């Protein structure tokens, strides 16, 4: 059973009690990510994610690690373009202990300067890893091009110079300016009793004060043409990244978008996988993906091919995009398979407590309410072939951004 309580401060607590579960997944979510940074503090949200486990007034970094290990569960944290999350899954009888620990690291971290300086070196190594992974590097450069100077184009890991010069004061300033109760929620799924859980959490966040300053995000303007470019690099493969302006997360077209993506390159029976890999052997990896936020989004295509076959692959991709924009090219059987795949993926994820905790948290941020699995499954069932084809025509009748990274020259590439 799903329940929600909003404290006087604006902090939201969401629980989903799942009968017969012996574990519980708990996450503290912040509606802040790299898109909420500027060029002079890019990487601060991700840095904070690391520092939350480096010591509080009550616990040293080692004590935090030992307690998490003693719970016998799994713990982690992540930062994305628009959210930051600390989470763990533990046996149900350890939930209260976990809640106390995560509340302490979230509200009482010291951000000791010695620890900050040490962790900066760790994050700089994390940034350096991107340079050794061509597809990661291509993705970051494509995003920077696609969002045309908007904060969404900034890397989550951050600018190396910003990271190297990070201080305790800068971290506290970021928390003070953005980590307000209205931007934070606590999500728990598994064996959890809502009223008792709220009674545990409320005093732990008693010092968490509401901000009177509104939290405003500016969407990208797309006032410049989408860029298509080649990045020359000595690699065995050519890495492709392509994208067209898509839809935002709350769009009524979001279910049609999922089905379009499934048909295009979302699984092994998809058009791109079958045409590029299975029939012609041009790529080991080829797929499409959706990047969506509350105010914007895009549909992307990524793959790795030989330098000698990059234009052949691009031609096939373009052909499939055109085909999926026509009602006559989508068979009823193919469409039903895509709907079945979407529903199956939905329900399989619903068997995982961490996924359910995450789903509930994201739904609250983006939609402000519970959205059941059955509601989403029914929405997929109502999408028509006409709607998917119309969406394809809308997506790919305009500009198309692209990045090709590898041992090729600008004049070698034939763009759409």
Helix-strand layout with pairing:
Layout: E1 2-6, E2 12-17, E3 23-30, H1 44-51, H2 61-70, E4 74-79, E5 84-91, H3 95-108, H4 113-131, H5 134-146, H6 160-164, H7 168-178, E6 184-190, H8 194-204, E7 228-232, E8 238-245, H9 254-266, H10 271-278, E9 283-292, E10 297-305, H11 310-323, H12 332-349, H13 353-367, H14 373-382, H15 385-396, E11 401-406
Parallel strand pairs: 2-6, 7-11
Antiparallel strand pairs: 1-2, 3-5, 3-6, 4-5, 8-10, 8-11, 9-10
Helix pairs in contact: 3-8, 9-12, 9-15, 10-11, 12-14
List keywords for this structure.
single chain; 416 residues; alpha+beta; Cytochrome Bc1 Complex, Chain A, domain 1; 2 domains; six-stranded mixed beta sheet; five-stranded mixed beta sheet; 15 helices; 19% strand; globular
- Helix tally? 15
Radius of gyration: 23 Å
String of helices and strands: EEEHHEEHHHHHEHEEHHEEHHHHHE
Global structural class = alpha+beta
CATH architecture of the largest domain: 2-Layer Sandwich
The CATH class assignment of the largest domain is: Alpha Beta
DSSP strand (E) fraction? 15-25%
Distance between the terminal alpha carbons, to the nearest Å?
A: 50 Å
**Share of helical residues:** 40-55%
CATH T-level fold name of the largest domain = Cytochrome Bc1 Complex, Chain A, domain 1
Number of strands: 11
């Amino acid at each position: 059973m799903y329940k929600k309580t909003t404290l006087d401060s604006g902090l939201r607590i969401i629980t989903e009690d799942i009968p017969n579960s012996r574990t519980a997944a708990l996450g503290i979510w912040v509606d802040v990510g790299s898109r909420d940074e500027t060029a002079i503090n890019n990487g601060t949200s991700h840095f904070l994610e690391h520092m939350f486990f480096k010591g509080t007034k009550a616990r040293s970094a080692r004590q935090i690690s030992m307690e998490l290990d003693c719970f016998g569960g799994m713990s982690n944290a992540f930062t994305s373009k628009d959210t930051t999350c600390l989470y763990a899954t533990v046996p149900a009888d350890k939930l209260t202990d976990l809640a106390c620990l995560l509340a302490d690291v979230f509200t009482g971290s010291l951000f000791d300067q010695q620890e900050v300086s040490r962790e900066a070196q760790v994050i700089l190594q994390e940034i350096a890893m991107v340079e050794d992974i061509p597809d990661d590097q291509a993705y970051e450069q494509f995003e920077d091009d696609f969002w045309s100077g908007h904060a969404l184009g900034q890397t989550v890991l951050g600018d190396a110079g910003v990271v190297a010069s990070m201080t305790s004061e800068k971290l506290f300033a970021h928390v003070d300016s953005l980590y307000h109760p209205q931007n934070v929620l606590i999500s728990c799924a598994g064996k959890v009793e809502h009223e008792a859980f709220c009674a545990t959490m409320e005093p732990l966040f008693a010092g968490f004060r509401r901000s009177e300053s509104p939290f405003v995000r500016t969407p990208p303007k797309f006032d410049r043409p989408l860029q298509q470019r080649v990045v020359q690099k000595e690699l065995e493969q050519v890495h492709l990244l392509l994208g067209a302006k898509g839809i935002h997360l709350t769009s009524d077209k979001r279910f049609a978008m999922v089905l379009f993506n499934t048909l295009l390159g979302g699984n092994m029976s998809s058009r791109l996988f079958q045409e590029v890999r299975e029939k012609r052997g041009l790529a080991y990896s080829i797929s499409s993906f959706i990047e969506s936020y509350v105010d914007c989004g895009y549909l992307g295509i990524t793959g790795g091919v030989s330098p000698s076959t990059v234009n052949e692959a691009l031609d096939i991709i373009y052909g499939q995009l055109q085909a999926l924009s026509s009602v006559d090219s989508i068979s009823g059987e193919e469409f039903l398979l895509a709907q079945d795949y979407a529903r199956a993926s939905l329900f399989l994820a619903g068997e995982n407590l961490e996924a359910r905790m995450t789903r509930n948290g994201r739904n609250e941020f983006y939609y402000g309410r519970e959205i059941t699995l059955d509601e989403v499954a029914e929405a997929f069932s109502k999408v028509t072939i006409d709607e998917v084809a119309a969406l394809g025509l809308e997506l790919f009748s305009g500009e198309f951004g692209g990045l090709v990274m590898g041992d090729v020259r600008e004049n070698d590439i034939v763009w759409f």
